[in-house]
Amino acid sequence: MTKTFPWDYHKDLTEERLVAVGQMILEARRLAVELFDSDIGDDGWTLGCRASQFARYRILTAFDGQRFPWLTVIDRSRRLIFTIGEVPVRIYRGEAEEPTARTLHQSLSELDQLGFSFDERDEGHDLAYRFAVETDVDGSALAVKFVGLRGETAVLNWNVPLGLDAFTGGIGMPATESVELDAPSVGVRDRKTKTGE
Hints:
Layout: H1 6-9, H2 15-35, H3 44-64, E1 71-75, E2 81-84, E3 87-93, H4 101-104, H5 108-117, E4 128-135, E5 141-150, E6 153-159, E7 168-170, E8 173-174, H6 191-195
Parallel strand pairs: 3-4
Antiparallel strand pairs: 1-2, 2-3, 4-5, 5-6, 7-8
């Protein structure tokens, strides 16, 4: 059987749970983008730090408040490792298919939890489970994907359905109605015009 969806890899990785975590991550990134102000010194680094901390705070608050009985936190540090049911998960910003060495690193606590969650013969036992936040040039989220990484390969790559696939007209701007344009004029450029003679 070919495994396509997260719940094919582990029964705890349900769509409802992944959407709940994805929404926390998305809300955090939206707030970080909204607060971004280059006039006071914000740059891509401060935006990334805010988005990461805001997501971390939301997940820790949900865990501490027992909002979701299936959510547990293994590591409360800045790298934040949490579980969805039995499966350890982390978050990174970047393309789902292009994880960095830092993204691929698995801590001992994460590896231990995977050992408890999967049978050694299960093909999902050695994957690094991550939420990948793919962003636009302004830092806003284009997609949140749940991935299972084996080495640098995204064996599992599932788009979390958060309504981010709607077309926008420009960065952060809603799309407007289409506009009809005249056909472009095509021809060979006059050399005198080009060189200014």
